Predict the 3D structure of the following.
Amino acid sequence: MSSKISHVEGTSMEPGFGVWDYVVVGLMMVVSAGIGLYYRCSGGRQKSAQEYLLGDRDLPVLPVAISLMASFMSSITLLGVSRENYIFGTQFVVINVGYGLITPVITHCFLPVFFRLQLTSSYQYLEERFGQTTRLLTSVAFTLQMVLYLSIVLYAPAIALEALTGISTVFAILLVGLVCTFYSTIGGIKAVVFTDFFQSLLMFAAVFAVIIKGAMDAGGLKEIWRIAGEGGRLQFDNVSADPTQRHTWWSLMLGGGFTYLSLYAVNQIQVQRLLTLRSIQRSQVALWLSWPILSLISLSTSLAGLAIYSRYHDCDPVAAGRITSTDQLMPLFVVDSMGGLPGLCGVFVAGIFSGSLSTISSGVNSLAAVTLEDYIKPVYKRVKAREIPEKMNNIILKSFALAYGLVSVALAFSADYLGGLLQASLSILGVVGGPTLGMFTLGMFFTITNETGAVCGLLTGLSIAFWIAFGGPKPPVITLPISTEGCTNQPNVSDAGSSAELYRQSDTIFNTSVSQLVSNESSDSNYFYLYKLSYLWYVVIGFLMTVVVGLLVSAVCKMFRKTEPPAPNPDLFIPCVRSYILRQMAKKQLDGATKQYAAMDKLGPTAVSSESLKSGESAPL
């Protein structure tokens, strides 16, 4: 995949970086590293696993809320969402409604379970509910998911901004990767959360800089909106129930909602952050705060995409041969509109790099936690018959945080082969996140589920989700119309009438089986139906297959079980199911006491006090 800028005579996108731009980016890197050093030398100096992974469970609410947003709001999102609105229109913004509808499910169902158990690794829950095999399988799936995702997150800004900064892709990957590995390794979760807070401010600054400059160039926000409307970019009303249509209210609400649920309800990165707060009430407040912050950056980035469209609506830069990937639309806009303003390009690059730093540091810290809790500790306890010493815990955590950071850097150089950036990352999150969410749902919502059913459900969900997401061939995507009428002196200008074909050929986002999406116009019967589904349904299908197969297999196992299983631990279930189990347990105790009383009454006169009746005991007269 090549995403270098085409240097067409008179229109090439030359590096727009000056001294002040380098100063801004350098300050961002220094401050991020400095936060890590500060938390390494303050407080408990990250000498305990409790402080390193959970911040002694006493972090402030607002930084945690912003960190929840920043953990998955990476540079891919900043570049990809703006490109999404430029190419396909504004229908994607509906996904934010789904986020809001799902938030109470997380705060009132999943979060109380994790807070009640106070586990460092969210996957430890699966062992307590089902068994060690279930925990290990899910932990391995999470590890593979995050390592691949982090490599794409690290690769995205480096390749997209190479021409803008004049910095090579290799240097950019090493710079971002090593800086975030450094501060997350030495500073623990405190450094991760507070650098996320700082970097989020830069992300907002980068997006607002594009919006403000775009509005100034276009003649105001009203003019941006008018141009977008004339270009067919204002789309909010697709309520079709056809799952093969790319973005509809149903796919965005359900698919986007389930993706959000899989990330914020059971993913180790987010659960670990929510457990850094001292009470469940503060954790719920943090989660509710993160939703409007997430929606604000999402809507702002969407508006930035329309601002970019207002500049290039009559001379599409891909059709003009100025760029070869639509992921470079935002960097191109920055060069064209801000290149002569000292420091503004630096603010933009700092914001894009911050998106990668916040996501990678979060992932590295959580991967270290999962490795210690789910891989190292069980083996050590089995071999040594005792727990790992606290000092050794700290060494292991920092060693693996460093190792995962370096692995992400190494894999970033191979991310060229992983396909399109935004859709590849969403697909990776969806195909693993859906079945994982299904596993926790089987454990927390249903008392009938056993380990055999859970494992069969997980393997089925993963297999089908991967098959649909990565199988092919898939129908090509059809983009909204583009124009080259305003282009002048452009030897490489293509006919706008063949824009869809041009985009498929020139933009690597559309050349891979992972990211080729189903368009509203694609109904070719030559394509297998499941391959025509919108990518947003991958997570839903993975979730449903895991839950349905898990329940069916568990029910069959129950039919052939000869002995009654022990009563489940009520703390492993969501609040309403937990209350039901406790009532059933109390009823059984009362029935047992009543039967014992009746049996003793047949033997002769007895006196049973109310206290004895409650405990199932009796006392002779």
In short: The chain has two domains: 19-552, 575-621.
